[in-house]
Amino acid sequence: MGKSGESSVGQSPLRRFLTQHSGPYVTSCRMAGDHRNMSSSLTPSAPLVARLRDARRIVVLTGAGMSAESGIPTFRDQVTGLWARFDPYDLATPEAFVRDPETVWAWYEWRRHLVAHAAPNAGHLALTKLAARPQVESLTIVTQNVDDLHERAGSKEVLHLHGSLFAPRCFACGQAFEGLTDPAKDEPENQMTRLPPPSCSHCNGRIRPGVVWFGEGLPEEIWMRALRKVETADLLLVIGTSSKVYPAASLPDAARRHGGDVSVINPDPSTLSSRSRLDWQIPAAIGLPALLSMLEE
Ligand code: BJW
Ligand code: ZN
Question: Is 162 a catalytic residue?
């Protein structure tokens, strides 16, 4: 029996989820009667359900929290996040790759294997169902994630702002590399610390992960498409991102400037707006299916 008098069996699913899966910044947040007056219940607010029911052009901006319940670590969780264990400047910059390509390549290969052995969660699947509602004219997923879980959940329009773990290319000439090993046949038991990257068949340069590192530009055409979609959306759902990395973090303001509504779905209350009745403090794989079932009632 915990301090609150709840047994772990009798705890609400949200409280149990937060206790088991989240860092201290989440478990210490107040789930009810929070002073910011935000929605922290297991049921979405009536304004959120109504807004989603009316939305015709929807954009969903996702971050690492979207895939957390598929077992993929986020970046900035203070305990389980990748940046709690690894220094981003040693792994996620072009300078790091030039300095130590074996360490960087091994880290990304470990993450590619992790994703390949993961499955889309109930949140990814709920977004695919949302797109299929007859009222929805378009639903675009703009993701910062380098995994392919939205696609594997059946989402059709997915824009990857920060690239992909599955599209490596030559660091020197940019040529795409087709020779990645099959993770099913080649599963490293533990994270390897060093692994030489393959060589480019065109120029013999080093193959690099096809992701966007700090200090690098986003793929221009994808960024422009994402911006246009956001600027014409009537609703932007912001799911599972700490909104600390730019320019992705500027998209909610772009939506608001063009008259769109913004709803943040995240278990961490510090990411929510203190005033918006469209925000919901909840993990994605619990909240999104619940939201969808309310729409179908
Ligand atoms: C859950 C959950 C559950 C947990 N359910 N939720 C303006 C101001 C200041 C600095 C800059 C600026 N503009 C540019 C910069 C510099 C830099 C930057 O932003 N730095 C900041 C850190 C200060 N930006 C860049 O360098 C970018 N390039 C650029 O701007 O070029 C110019 C240009 C612009 C436009 C067009 C062309 C050119 C590049 C940024 C690249 C970011 N790369 C990384 C690594 C990618 C490869 C890899 O995966 O290794 O991308 S860093 C890392 O952060 C990764 C992520 O995509 C990104 C965002 O993280 P995310 O997704 O928000 O994860 P977390 O961990 O931070 O948050 C998880 C959230 O989930 C939390 O809120 C949890 O509560 C929540 N959660 N469980 C729902 N179950
Ligand atoms: Zn090359």
Answer: yes
